[in-house]
Specification:
globular; about 160 residues; 2 helices; alpha+beta; four-stranded antiparallel sheet; four-stranded mixed sheet
């Protein structure tokens, strides 16, 4: 599927969800077994920095913002497509929260996760700020892969 088609689908889903005309129903059922490997204590270490740059060139760090480490499964892949550049939140399933690790960005937006099991993850951080009466910013999401015993360092920005 090309980017134009994806953007069109995202736009339609966003309009429908905002208008209240439709409720998104997950096609992929939540399966706790898909997350089993992610509950183990691992030996990987993930760190990085989250920030956005304004149109004027000012850097907005993810200071005090929650960085989420979300296991990649069929379920979270569907959420990733549906939510696009908004923060992933299960529409009606609160089970996902127990499998998401969180860290808080320091004053420079730096974050770290220790004892991470090997696998694929989404790193996600929502950075928003007010400009006058308008809210601006974005949710940054990046898919990463970590292997046991490896230190992975990632920059979360657009």
């Amino acid at each position: 599927m090309n980017n134009t088609m994806k953007n069109f689908i995202y736009g339609v889903l966003l309009i429908l969800s905002i208008s209240g005309c439709a409720t998104y129903v997950m096609k992929t059922p939540f399966n706790k077994q898909d997350f089993a490997e992610f509950t183990k204590t691992g030996t990987a270490y993930i760190n990085g920095q989250a920030f956005l740059t304004t149109r004027g060139g000012e850097v907005r760090y993810g200071a005090g913002k929650t960085v989420r480490l979300i296991p990649v499964t069929k379920y979270t892949m569907e959420l990733h497509v549906f939510y696009g550049d908004r923060q992933m939140r299960p529409p009606s399933d609160v089970n996902l929260a127990q499998f998401v690790r969180t860290a808080v960005g320091n004053g420079s937006g730096n974050f770290a996760f220790e004892e991470v099991p090997a696998g694929d993850y989404f790193l996600e951080c929502a950075i928003y700020w007010d400009v006058g009466n308008e809210r601006t910013g974005s949710t940054i999401r990046k898919r990463v892969h970590v292997d046991e015993g490896i230190r992975g360092s990632y920059i979360l920005t657009e």
